[in-house]
Amino acid sequence: MADAMGAAQRDAEQANLAKSRFLAAASHDLRQPLQTLSLLRGVLARKIREGQTEEALALVVRLNETSDNMTSMLNAVLDINQIESGTVRADISDFSAAVLFERLVDDFAVVAAERGLSLRVVSSGLSLRTDPHLLEQMLRNLVSNALKYTRRGKVLMGCRRRGGMARIEIWDTGIGIPDDQLKAVFDEFYQLGNAARERKHGLGLGLTIVRRLGKLLGHAVAVRSWHGRGSVFSVEVPLSPGGMPPVLDLDVPEDETRAAHRAGAILVIEDDTAVRESLVLVLTEDGHRVVAAEDGPAASRLVAQGAARPDLILSDFNLPNGMNGLEAALTLREQLRREIPVVILTGDIATGTMRDIAARGIAQLNKPVEPAGLLAVIQGLLPDPAPGVPPPAPLREGPPVVFVVDDDADIRAALREVLEADGRIVETFGSSEAFLAAWRPGGAGCLIVDAYLPGMDGMELLRRLRAAGHELPAIAITGSGDVSIAVQAMKAGVSDFIEKPVGPDELLACVGRALEHGADLSRRVSRHDDAAGHLASLTPRQRQIMELVLSGHPSKNIAADLGISQRTVENHRASIMKKTGSRSLPALARLAVAADEAG
């Protein structure tokens, strides 16, 4: 027992020493580009002040290169940390070796040509069984290393069958590895011929990642080398037991990516003002509707007030005020009562943090993140675009149907219960998209829609229906006191709107008015034509005075504006009321609105 405890203690001490060496080397290599960025930033500011545009643009290019180098270093460190923390999991499938090889050769062809090297692949008809993306990461590192350490000649990639295994080999005619360093090349930050640790040669983590991914997948990784003449690295991968599977396309065609672009409502939670504003700008430019909060409690208040009904939450992990990004996201999921997609942005690479995020099935992106990468992840998580609005159809006979669209299942159930108790036929939907997919125009009825919905919100649904020429009467449900949404709803063509909370009597009265409003299209058209006929009997001066009266102007102001006497205005008003058959100003207003709608 004492021997076992002593061995465990020695292992722990070795692990601590290894971790210290790792952090010291990483700190050194990451501080170098930071120093460069700091110096270049000062020079750039001076060039801009002095109006030296060309020199400033050249410095911007150098800043971008340094930033890219630093991002590459951080990504390598994070890759190792994720493998160690257990958050990288293999997704095993069968695929063609040829597809993967061709992809790698295509991607590295330009690099090889720039260095005057030949990059070739030996065609293979073998089918592999492993995680294609993790294997690709291993091979990318091996090909990159081969090109980096080969000054002249070629790099060759191929695959040999060995029993039930495939042995993938990458050969090069590079500088080779001395026998006493064959094991050391897989250690963290170890680099042949780079004692000064020049950044252009990378961090020295590529082979470390290859070894760790090989251990994760159960793939043996080996190296043979002839100092001064070249090396061969190999990875042993199981063959597919079922023969050649369908070709696995590891790329998403660019045209399909564009065609499938999704736009949604995104709630951003970020306490850093500059980062928050940048995220809002990037997402808005990509066509999303964005609401932002500085912490979890603020985001929760936005949801409670109805100001945010997101399709996706994008949150920093380290947030102030007692709630980290993961906790905030889970709280909001509970509040919204649905498994809304979440992306956590974090610079925290602690093993526990990464495991907690992965255990919840939540996407994680490590800072810094490129806009293209962030937008690609969001595209993969947002719901599918909404179906189109069907064209208008002739009216069909049958009882009217009340369509309820609300993402809250309890509210849908309560509305259905009240309406069905009143003898109404009710159909409920959890989203605008679901409503459009099922609804067929032509029958009598009305629509009750929540103004705030994930995906296509209520206002957008109403606008689409109106633009398509539909006469379906609609009632919008808004938050209490939400005047701006009520105005938007009226502009979008609703016949009425309800403020939460709503009682059964008010709900039934609204539905009654809406159904009456849409009961007979032909009768309404006739009424509109009638109104237009009445107004046609007015003289141009009388129409002018009517418009001013209905705009709320008193007679003396109208007289002054038109340069006539107040008595003349009063005579015109009396004549207008007589010709139109209106007994009051509200009746005249209804007639004018009806005539406008007819036009």
Mean pLDDT, as a whole number? 77
Q: Specify the CATH architecture of the largest domain.
A: 2-Layer Sandwich
* Backbone CA Rg: 35 Å
Spans of at least 5 consecutive residues with low confidence: 194-202, 244-259
CATH homologous superfamily caption of the largest domain: Histidine kinase-like ATPase, C-terminal domain
Strand order of the largest sheet: 2-4-5-7-6
Whole-number tally of structural domains: 5
Topology diagram in text:
Blueprint: H1 2-49, H2 53-85, E1 93-96, H3 97-114, E2 118-121, E3 127-130, H4 132-148, E4 154-162, E5 165-172, H5 206-217, E6 221-226, E7 230-238, H6 254-259, E8 265-269, H7 273-285, E9 289-293, H8 296-304, E10 312-316, H9 325-336, E11 342-346, H10 351-359, E12 363-366, H11 371-381, E13 401-405, H12 409-421, E14 425-429, H13 432-438, E15 445-450, H14 458-467, E16 474-478, H15 483-491, E17 496-499, H16 504-517, H17 521-536, H18 540-550, H19 555-562, H20 566-580, H21 585-598
Parallel strand pairs: 2-4, 8-9, 8-10, 10-11, 11-12, 13-14, 13-15, 15-16, 16-17
Antiparallel strand pairs: 1-3, 4-5, 5-7, 6-7
